[in-house]
Specification:
The complex is a heterodimer of chains A (about 80) and B (about 270). Chain A is an all-alpha fold and about 80 residues long. Chain A has a single domain, classed as Arc Repressor Mutant, subunit A (Orthogonal Bundle), CATH 1.10.10. Chain A has 5 helices and no strands. In chain A, helix 3 packs across helix 4. The longest helix of chain A has 20 residues. Chain A starts with 5 loop residues before the first helix and ends with a helix. Among the domains of chain B are: about 90 residues, RNA polymerase sigma factor, region 2, helix turn helix motif (Rna Polymerase Sigma Factor, Chain: A, Orthogonal Bundle); about 100 residues, Arc Repressor Mutant, subunit A. Chain B is about 70% helix and about 0% strand. In chain B, helix 9 packs across helix 12. Chain B is globular and about 55 Å long. In chain B, about 35% of the residues are buried. Classes of the chains: A mainly alpha (about 80), B mainly alpha (about 270). At the A-B interface, helix 2, helix 4 and helix 5 of A face helix 1, helix 5, helix 6, helix 9 and helix 12 of B.
């Protein structure tokens, strides 16, 4: 595989983070990242962002919203 | 037994319970009894493993309407996140969530089992939310102006100086994350929530949104890069004195609570 430039590397960022792509592609990406600090930073911080999002478990259902949902379903189920 | 009783994972402080009771009482006497018995049912529900979606679907179709309650419990949060991702505000997301579950109940016999129940339900949620968005013709949130799919170039190339979890409290990071997701333009927010919050596969997310897998991946890449920029900007701001004090107080409170719990356990 030919040497990748920063644009190619960025285009394959998701693929790499999701564990997809051939071994050859991943090796080429890693080779670029090891010598390009700018791409390394983007890969590293995007991976960290994803971990922060996963750990944060965003958007709880507000209690009042949940209560109204169950109240409506109670009605729908009892009518059916 | 009412739908609300036995809600898994509901942990209410005494004050919240009183507020919630007052709210629930507005629904009438039938509803009050469910609220009053909730604590007992919560305990009895602990430790019971989740049942499989397909099994629950079979039970509902066989006439056990209460099995639908379990399905709702399992998917309530997912449906809320999805409708919120499409619509961008809680009021509309709530309405779309209710409509999603009502529709799912009424059309459950059309679920063909070729896809996962999650995908089927998420597709209904996206459709309901998109219909609602289309009906809302005049309202265009500022964050949704930029829906172009041009290549996005990262601007921030600096490494994160420190571990954000050490600088900010959990609740603050939670808020940063929610604000960052909400600030994404619509098409990126949908892709990001389905893929990185709900963890649908690229194929499932593309199917639910009615777009090709390459289009989904292109939106997801841009969404991730935008999320990274937004979060980096927030996390690189030095915490204010107030933040530091609150964070420290929470840490101290947690440590004291843990010591008390350990002492009580002896």
């Amino acid at each position: 595989m030919k040497t990748m430039d920063c644009k190619d590397v960025l285009a394959n960022l998701s693929c790499y983070l999701d564990g997809e792509g051939s071994a050859e592609l991943r090796t080429a990406l890693e080779e670029h990242i090891s010598r390009c600090r700018r791409c390394r930073v983007v890969f590293d911080t995007t991976g960290r962002m994803l971990k922060i999002v996963t750990d944060a478990e965003p958007f709880e259902v507000p209690l009042s919203v949940s209560a109204r949902l169950y109240a409506r379903l109670e009605k729908v189920l009892s009518e059916s | 037994m009412g739908l609300l009783s036995g809600r898994k994972g509901l942990r209410l402080s005494h004050r919240t319970r009183l507020e919630f009771r007052a709210f629930a009482e507005s629904f009438g006497p039938q509803y009050q009894s469910h609220v009053l018995t909730m604590r007992k049912d919560e305990r009895s529900n602990q430790g019971i493993p989740d049942e499989d979606d397909l099994l629950l679907v079979e039970r509902v179709l066989a006439g056990d309407r209460r099995a639908f309650e379990s399905l709702v419990r399992r998917h309530e949060r997912r449906v809320f996140r999805v409708t919120l991702a499409v619509l961008g505000n809680i009021e509309d997301a709530e309405e779309a969530m209710q409509d999603t579950f009502v529709k799912a109940f009424r059309h459950l016999n059309q679920f063909r089992r070729e896809a996962r129940f999650t995908t089927w339900l998420t597709r209904i949620a996206v459709n309901e939310a998109v219909q609602k968005r289309s009906a809302r013709k005049t309202f265009v949130p500022l964050a949704d102006v930029d829906n172009s799919e041009e290549q996005f170039t990262p601007k921030r190339r600096e490494s994160w100086r420190s571990n954000p979890e050490q600088l900010y409290g959990k609740q603050e990071i939670h808020r940063f994350v929610e604000e960052a997701i909400q600030s994404l333009p619509e098409i990126y927010r949908e892709a990001f929530v389905l893929r990185d919050v709900e963890e649908l596969s690229a194929e499932e997310a593309a199917e639910v949104l009615g777009i090709s897998v390459p289009a989904l991946k292109s939106r997801l890449l841009r969404a991730r890069l935008m999320m990274r920029e937004t979060l980096a900007a927030r996390l690189e701001e030095p915490p204010t004195l107030k933040t530091k004090i609150v964070h420290k107080a929470v840490d101290v409170g947690t440590a004291v609570a843990m010591r008390l719990m350990r002492a009580a356990g002896r």
